[in-house]
């Protein structure tokens, strides 16, 4: 059975805190206290203090109206180096099929951690 056939049956990852939406010098941005990303032609990570100080926070609806065609954040966005190493170790413990399920889930929810994704998928029967 393909992993993608399972995903619609699993209620995944909606109740997780996300970075703020904003506008930074007229450009789309996403930010937290410790990290900031601004959309030039592609997402570019900037100094978080700069983004936090200059960004105008928006609701998701306002963000979507101002920036209707925003590509997804890179998979490394809002993930520290420690978290990335931990995630690699967690993924190494999974089968190839389970890794594919996790990858597909995270493609739709790029700001959710691998650990949280695995926990939710396991709770749903993976």
Textual characterization of the structure:
It is a single chain. It contains five helices and five strands. The chain has 126 residues and is an alpha+beta fold. It has two domains: 3-15 and 79-123, no CATH class; 20-66, no CATH class. It has a five-stranded antiparallel sheet. A hairpin with a 2-residue loop joins strand 1 (20-24) and strand 2. The radius of gyration is 16 Å and the shape is elongated. The two termini are 13 Å apart. 19% of the residues are buried.
Main attributes?
single chain; 126 residues; alpha+beta; 5 strands; 39% helix; disordered N terminus
Overall average pLDDT: 79
Overall number of strands: 5
Largest sheet: 5 strands, antiparallel
What is the tally of helical segments?
5
Share of helix among residues? Answer: 25-40%
Measured distance between first and last alpha carbons: 13 Å
Q: Write the element-wise H/E pattern from the N-terminal end onward.
A: EEEEHEHHHH
Tally of separate domains: 2
Structural classification: alpha+beta
Spatial strand order of the main sheet: 4-3-2-1-5
Radius of gyration: 16 Å
How large is the share of residues in beta strands?
15-25%
Overall spatial form: elongated
Care to give the gist of this entry?
The chain has 126 residues and is an alpha+beta fold. It has helices spanning 48-54, 60-66, 81-92, 96-108, 114-123, and strands spanning 20-24, 27-31, 36-39, 43-46, 56-58.
